[in-house]
Amino acid sequence: MARNRTITLLTFGFVLCFSLLLSSSAFQSDELQDDEEFGLEGGRALDLDYVNPKKSPPLRKRSSSDQDSDSKVHFVLEHAFSDSDFSPAGTFTARLKTWSHGGQTLTKLRFSRSGFSETENEEFKKLLENDDFYRIRVPSNVLSPPGRDYIISSVKARCLPRETLDEHFVIHMEGVNILAVNYGSPGACQYPRPLKLPAKWSFNSHTVLKNSEQAPRAPAFVEETLVGENGEGEGIKPPEKSFWAKYWMYLIPLGLIVMNTVTQAMNMPEEQASGQASSQTQTAQQRPPGSAVRRR
Amino acid sequence: MAMVLRLSLLLTLLCYSLNPSFALYEDQVGLMDWHQQYIGKVNHVVFHTQKAGRKRVVVSTEENVIASLDLRRGDIFWRHVLGANETIDEMDIALGKYVITLSSGGTILRAWNLPDGQMVWESLLQGSIPSKKFLSVMMNFKKGKDNLIFAFGRGCLHAVSSIDGEVLWRKELSELTTESLEIQRVFQPADSDIVYAVGFDGSSQFHTYQFNAKTGELLKHSVAAFLGGFSGESSFVSDDILVMLDATGSHLVLISYQDGEINFHQTYISDLVPDCSGVARILPTQLTGIVALKTDSSAVFLRLIGGNKLEVVEKINYPTAFSDALSYSEGQKAFALIQHVGSRIQLTLKLDNDWNSNLLEESIEMDPQKGNVQKVFINNYIRTDRTYGFRALIVLEDHSLMLLQQGEIVWSREDGLASVIDVTTEELPLEKEGVSVAKVEHNLFEWLKGHILKLKGTLMLASPGDIVAIQAMRMKSSEKSKMTRDHNGFRKLLIVLTRAGKLFALHTGDGRVVWSLLLPSLRRSEACQYPTGINIYQWQVPHHHAMNENPSILVVGRCGLGSDAPGVLSFVDLYTGKELSSFNLAHSIAQVIPLPFTDSTEQRLHLLIDAGGRAHLYPRTLEVLKIFQSELPNTYWYSVEAEKDIIRGHALHSNCFLEETDEYCFSTRELWSIVFPSESEKIISTATRKLNEVVHTQAKVIADHDVTFKYISRNLLFVATVAPKGDCSVGSVTPEESWLVVYLIDTITGRILHRMTHLGSQGPVQAIISENWVVYHYFNLRAHRFEMSVIEIYDQSRADIKDVWKILLGKHNLTSPVSSYSRPEVVMKSQSYFFTHSVKTMAVTSTAKGITSKQLLIGTIGDQVLALDKRYLDPRRTINPTQAEKEEGIIPLTDALPIIPQSYVTHSLQVEGLRGILTVPAKLESTTLVFAYGVDLFFTRIAPSRTYDSLTEDFSYALLLITIVALIAAIFVTWVLSEKKELREKWR
What is the pTM of this model? Predict the structure, then answer.
């Protein structure tokens, strides 16, 4: 069941997830969907091992969307090697939607990653050797960066290299504010971490925007009971069990008793037949076993 | 057949589980629980007047308690615990039968009936600005037997009738002046209708007012400016002369204000007292013609002569406490003073007009663990020989209260225990061999007698006298108060740190104090002006290596009020109750992290994070450093900056860069941060898992024989944020503009595992994390009810381990190390339920192996502890659970959580001012020890799934023995009979 679900998810991901090939050959970038639509430009499909995360239904309602206005927003991703200073490493581009009720949200997030320069390559190799942290940061407010403070996230550098350098961003948003960035490898990162150099020094990035999901309400009980009762009457009835499954615990002892009586009944005539032949000795011989039984 | 058995077993289990709460029988109360009532540190004392109930005293305390105590024994007659923000400012007695209290910043005036403590009336006093609070009851004003009460608070003077609390008139004094006015005294000369009020405003203006007592009409108001300014302390030498200190504290100012004419007269303190250094303070004694000054090392008494001159009467070195003046006979006032002489205290009573002779001089031996005397209250009584006797109520440094009379301590109350800061538990020492055997032999007859009594009780043959004997035997069974470890792990030491900086070791059997220690490092000293205790941690728990060592704890405190004040560490031996060592640290303590490593002497490693984000390793030995170096790259910590709404994660980096090299100090660096948008979210609550919690199994078999895996991580942090507007109390926001967002955060990587919004909800939020679930409590504005929600977290990455054979053969990844840097595949299940009560605190039961099902312990607003089965808070509850789900124990869905009256852990008792609940596993798997503390203390043990692994205490072993003996006898008899019968048959 769970396997099936995974497969459907995988195919789902396969169909929906594309990446954007940029003109520069030094780096490539992938772009991922936001919550509501996966508007994508052509590109190659993503690795299959990327599993689409469980997404929440969007909070906001699409009311009077004709009045909503869009504009483009950029914000910069910066990175740092161990304790070095932060330097630009890529740009996020998104459409800023302004809703009629005043709220603003980001959609269609796109990410263009700048590749490592030579010195950065060396620095990253050093991180891999020391099993040190690769750190990134983004502004906490996309409209007026850096907002109150930068959002920092980091990962052990050894978790990133696979074929390429695989990275995965989950950006938690609240309006135009970024709450947190979960940064790491898209899959598992085994421990102890082995030293492994990537085959290709380019990034393979996945990004996901996440908004808060709404909590389930406490059950409004009155209506649901009715629904539940009605529903139970029709469909949720437990499957009818077979006669044997229902009553086996009575049937087996019954069967045993029957078998017992049958064998006894079958033995009885024989005994009587043989018993008549030796009726003289029987009375004398029968007593000892009887007493033995009693003594026990 | 086995299947039938299993089924019936399941059915019985189901029967039990459907009714999981069980109550105590009436005669079981007090068998395994104890309850102690306290009042806290006493602030104000009112002795009863001669007429009404001389044997009682009414006190008010720092814990906002008003209590009436028995003067003979110190017991509580009645007691009221006011709310947390209802500080009692002043207390007095009116009409000889009412206690009047002014509380909540001078806004609420209440009268309590003296004999039974019922509230007679309550008046709300209005006022605009916070100011000094003042209460005075006029005894001499006769207006048809009504005593007028003058209450000053929030800048207003109120005259209140003491009969019904009606506000007769109200004068806004702050309107009359420009700055905030501090009224020093309101008084009314005998046989006059004029009320005088004197005070000064912020800087240097001195005011006197005269009011008509009946109407409140302002008759006269005079002001005079004094250039030096006032420092706020004053002493009334007579009805028209006031002595104050000027702003610099170097001059004494005599102010006479006869008939509205104000005169100032200054005197240098150093002229009067030549060797006085430092800042002097005026002691608020109300003696006629005498002012008391306190300097660093001495107290000086000055007498007023000739209208405006002062002279030194006496100088007393190293005094500690003074009482207020007590007018005990016509025109005479007495006051008490206490000095420490070695380990004894000396109580001296003096008369104000006859300074040379002492009215009373007593010397009393005092327990050094009680510290210095902080307050004295005196009272007089008439002895059998018609002379005056005096008794003194003293408050000591450890907040205990004592009554002294005739040179003896009449009673003493350990009221420091009303302000518990932190609690931990420790095992008792192992029983020495040979002790128990002798004891049993000695008591064999007693033992038999006891069991026969019990047997009688079981067979309902016992007379009422026997029942009383059984009850008494159960209550004082020496078993439970022994000072050794028991087999079931019920007997432990509760180590309690109180606000006074005192450690108590309480025995769980009967709650008695085994030892107490006033921590020398947490006492006020030159180096450490405001010492405060913060937490206690288990420092050394003897295990296999260091079996012969005594266990010890670490007490963490700081010298000052801010979090950047330098820290104090103190190590205390738990069996002897002695301080082993103590350190005044150079760095501050913002956070203490006990690490999961111990050194060869079983001392636990602790990381102390200072305010600058540096980590300091303790204990400071080379061995510890070696252990820690290998774990350095895997050590992470996080900090919640609640006022900035930022959560940051850190990792240790390298040694500190300080002037002097300190290899036990490590610098840290920031790894991740979560910044909540300040306009929409504000942190109000965080929760983490208990460090020592045991989880029995990660796998959970659900109804369809499927296995799910709990996501169990020690690094889980629950954070609740609300809309900034919804931070205040219920009713301040509309549902549309309030929301509650809950987060589950991995503290290593800063990953938000789950984020969920409750629209239309607000705090306060109480949360608890255990195993793989979080339960939190909040207020739903739309439904106008409190709600409790549950989130359960399941690990999907292990979902493919379904094959039992794989697990059996070890071909699974259950034992492989898990890295937090892997992307977690988790599934959340969540559900909300309505809950009737508001909640003060929450805890969860914990057992030794984690097998027993869990109960939530909810501290309700009524100061009781309610046990609620976790299965009621199961997100998988459905309206009509299938048969398989029913077998699993899933309860049909309801919208509200049931409150079963029998499931109150505290049964009929109240733990007044409940602040915290501690649960400790016993050795017996089924049982949890529960300690609830607030103003009161309560201890009991509970078994969430009943005591399935032991016989109950009243199990009659004698009955079992007799049955066995009877059966054996019966076997023999029947055997003999059958032999005989057989023989007869053979002879036939």
Answer: 0.81
